[in-house]
Write a structure and sequence with these properties.
Layout lengths: L2 H8 L18 H4 L5 H13 L5 E8 L4 E6 L12 H12 L6 E6 L5 E2 L2 E2 L3 E4 L8 H13 L4 E2 L3 E4 L33 E7 L8 E4 L6 E4 L2 E2 L11 E5 L4 E8 L4 E7 L3 H15 L3 E2 L3 E4 L9 E7 L3 H10 L3 H16 L5 H14 L23 H13 L34 E8 L1 E10 L5 E11 L1 H6 L4 H9 L18
Parallel strand pairs: 5-7, 6-8, 7-16, 8-17, 11-14, 12-14
Antiparallel strand pairs: 1-2, 1-21, 3-6, 3-18, 4-5, 9-10, 9-15, 13-14, 19-20, 20-21
Helix pairs in contact: 3-12, 4-7, 4-8, 5-6, 7-8, 8-9
Length: about 500
């Protein structure tokens, strides 16, 4: 066991970590026969030394070359997965949709396009598909085909087609996250990720700050926020965003420090937002509409309509790249909803979507019946998965040629995604050696993927850490995941493993 190698990066570890470490090896022939493989001894010794006291840790390590468990600790405990849940979403999306899948947004008329003196006597249909990458510019380009055909006036209605949902956020999404763009609502009507950017600017000390919405987006944000100057003895300043009807927001509270703050605000009513955006686009193209903008769930049979133009998203492979590398929550929810609706061939709500999620994984031999799944992004506090659940998914991805392409979308330490600049992952020995999805929220610090050890072998791993308080996290000299993986880099090569001893849960 390379204990000296372990200690070279363990001693500078956490201030708040178990500090006792002892291991006695008996070298008699009889006792040696009872020892577990050397790689498991290595991990057992490492975990005995670094497992934190204050948080709960679950760990599973799998030798991909020998197809065997190396180590498990609390691997069956149900814990909050946070964003490593997106690995499950990536797998079911690949299974259900296929690598070449693209979202499409379509522009139709009822009759073949016939423009007389700039007038179109027809209804126009814009069919949304829940494309999480659709931008206002894409819609502008789509509708521009009418302008290019000479349309100046429409004597008819504009129909926006998309499933109308009462529930736009999953159960367990934290209330104070809902106005922030990483918790943007899921809908068939997604434009610019249902996110609007704004800037808050001071008008002097103790005066109401000015808030400007960028890009002339159709929302209204009222500022009651005040810029102030505080010292440590005064009550700290903070800002609160209140949501009203019709995409109306009120920003209250106070702020200090920088006089100008960037804001990212999640649209609260995507359907109404889409109506206003489409209306503004027709005006931009100088097309008057002598009718209404109507939202409806069920379009007429497309074979009865005339297609004018279509916008296609990037293929699924690129969408999964964005979901895993950037940990894009809306992308995850959209892909899961689309996969589930294809599975059941019916529009679904969040509860029905998660039932389909479990069923699709069951079809792949992954049993989540004892888990609790509330969404596809991992944002919900109601999610409960075990390290073994996630490991089962990783095994399918790593060994089934149909899904191995998903590994190319995992962040690479020091190179891409959420691991590009992560502390200790952006330098040796972890740089370029770890390929894994992060999962973080308050109290949660998870990592799952694969690493290449110094012995040349590739291992799958799932690390779930729950109960990590912000106070303890600030005092850490290095993240627990980084210290663990540094220790795993020196895992010994085992040519003929004979047994594995499963440690007691801690």
């Amino acid at each position: 066991m390379r204990l000296a190698n372990i200690s070279r990066f363990i001693f500078p570890y956490l201030l708040l970590t178990t500090a006792s470490f002892s291991l006695t090896l008996v070298h008699s022939a009889e006792s040696s026969a009872m020892l577990p493989p050397e790689d498991q001894q290595h991990v057992m010794a490492l975990m005995d030394f670094i497992t934190p006291n204050q948080s709960l840790v679950a760990l599973s390590i799998w030798d991909l070359s020998d197809n065997r468990n190396v180590y498990q600790q609390n691997a069956d405990a149900l814990m909050n997965p946070a964003s490593i849940q997106k690995i499950l979403t990536a797998l079911v999306s690949a299974k259900q949709l296929g690598q070449s899948f693209r979202y499409q947004t379509s522009l139709y008329t009822e009759k073949p396009l016939a423009v007389v003196n700039g007038i179109l006597d027809d209804n126009v249909y814009v069919e949304f598909s829940g494309d999480p990458t659709l931008k206002q510019g894409d819609l502008t380009d789509l509708i521009s085909h009418l302008s290019k055909a000479g349309v100046k006036q429409i004597n008819g209605d504009i129909h926006l087609i998309g499933h109308q949902q009462d529930q736009l956020q999953a159960p367990g999404w934290v209330w104070d996250d809902l106005g922030i763009c990483y918790a943007a609502p899921l809908s068939s009507f997604i434009i610019d990720k249902n996110c609007v950017f704004a800037r808050l600017s001071a008008n002097g000390v103790n005066n109401t700050a000015t808030l400007k919405v960028m890009g002339k987006r159709p929302i209204y944000v009222e500022s009651e926020a005040v810029y102030t100057q505080t010292n440590q003895r005064e009550v700290p300043c903070d800002l609160q965003l209140s949501r009203k009807d019709s995409n109306h927001f009120i920003l209250k509270g106070c702020y200090s420090g920088a006089k100008s703050l960037p804001l990212a605000i999640a649209v609260s009513e995507p359907q109404g937002y889409a109506v206003n955006v489409v209306n503004s686009i027709f005006k931009k193209h100088n097309i008057s509409v002598n009718g209404q903008i109507i939202v409806e769930s069920k379009p007429r049979n497309p074979t009865e309509l005339t297609i004018i133009a279509q916008h296609l998203s990037a293929p699924l492979t690129e969408l999964i790249d964005e979901m895993l590398l950037k940990s894009d929550n809306l992308m995850a929810e959209a892909l899961l909803r689309t996969s589930a609706e294809k599975y059941f061939n019916h529009p679904l709500n969040f509860n029905q979507t998660t039932k389909a999620f479990i069923a699709m994984l069951q079809d792949l031999g992954i049993d989540l019946r004892i888990a609790n799944v509330a969404d596809g992004s991992g944002l919900s506090r109601y999610n409960l998965l075990s390290a073994e659940h996630v490991m089962s998914v990783l095994k399918v991805i790593a060994t089934d040629p149909s899904y191995q392409f998903l590994l190319n979308s995992f962040p690479v330490a020091g190179k891409s995604g959420t691991l590009r600049y992560k502390r200790y992952f952006n330098k040796p020995p972890l740089k370029n050696k770890v390929m894994a999805k992060t999962g973080s929220m308050l109290g949660v610090a998870n990592l799952a993927g694969q690493f290449v050890a110094s012995n040349g072998k590739t291992y799958l791993f799932v690390l779930i850490e729950n109960g990590l308080s912000p106070q303890i996290k600030r005092k850490q000299k290095a993240p627990f995941s980084a210290v663990l993986l540094q220790g795993l880099m020196d895992i010994p090569l085992v040519q003929h493993p004979q047994m594995m001893i499963k440690p007691l849960s801690k």
